[in-house]
């Protein structure tokens, strides 16, 4: 499917907010093998200034006429509902329309950005309407990125184009709350309008390591995302993280993803311990895909970069440290400082001391104290113990407004969610 993005950009300056929105939409389309994006910009837009996603060779660039008889068209800001347009307005509109007709003839859908809204795009608004008469089967999607304007009582052509619907066009606004006002501005039924939120690309500045991980693991949709860094030794009790997360998934119907940012230990053979951890998780309710070890990535089999672990803490919402022994627990502070619910082993003195200051949730696991070791015996069973604490943790996360906001931002406003739930459905032909 060929999708044209009609922007009429003269440049790609990122300080222009719509440029950033279009960049996000290009990323969404490029991630979908069924879509070929086409950028429609003015003939004055320098492609030498491209950067980031705009450099992707899969994007086809088509320049639209912006001159008549070798003289550049000068745009005028026609924001009024009626009045007079400049003498060459309709001649210029016909020139642009003829070029648009040619540039759109093999396109499946055309997405416009502020073409119908902005006063300085009135000429292009009229040109698109002229072109559509020769392309009656081509559907259009018209994005409005600013608050809809009040519909005037009286309008006159061509100014009325900013307040009139175009056939075979869906009108789009960033929030559902603005749909009624949007429909009123364009004098169109609300049923022809849709909300497509702006997206938050949490990987836009991600490190190479996190990007590599994101290709293997779904970082965005899980309700519970747990990051546990450490040397792959039994003393870190990796399997206890898996068993608690299994109880959360099994008893409270939450999707869970554990990412162990691990590196080898001389204490135990890595593959053997990984197998045990996965088996423990499965026994308590997890699936194999719910657990991932960064050491399974060839480039990071001997360790995952610390700065990348800190990036992951910005995405995660639950940190569990059931470690048998700790002298301090720096990762606890790192996870807490990046907005995670903290669950610690109460039997470890350093974790108890630190956790009380952080208002952490405590659980009891085997531990090494000063001069002696402790071993837990659960009644009526460890499964019952895990279930009880899993319920407490789920409630803590539900009632914490920061955790809730962080989780919703990660799940609900990513480019992936916006694409699959809002934008892509609009592109499909009825």
Automatic annotation (TrEMBL):
<keyword id="KW-0328">Glycosyltransferase</keyword>
<keyword id="KW-0808">Transferase</keyword>
<protein>
    <submittedName>
        <fullName>Glycosyltransferase</fullName>
        <ecNumber>2.4.-.-</ecNumber>
    </submittedName>
</protein>
<dbReference type="InterPro" id="IPR001296">
    <property type="entry name" value="Glyco_trans_1"/>
</dbReference>
<dbReference type="Pfam" id="PF00534">
    <property type="entry name" value="Glycos_transf_1"/>
</dbReference>
<dbReference type="GO" id="GO:0016757">
    <property type="term" value="F:glycosyltransferase activity"/>
</dbReference>
<feature type="domain" description="Glycosyl transferase family 1">
    <location>
        <begin position="215"/>
        <end position="353"/>
    </location>
</feature>
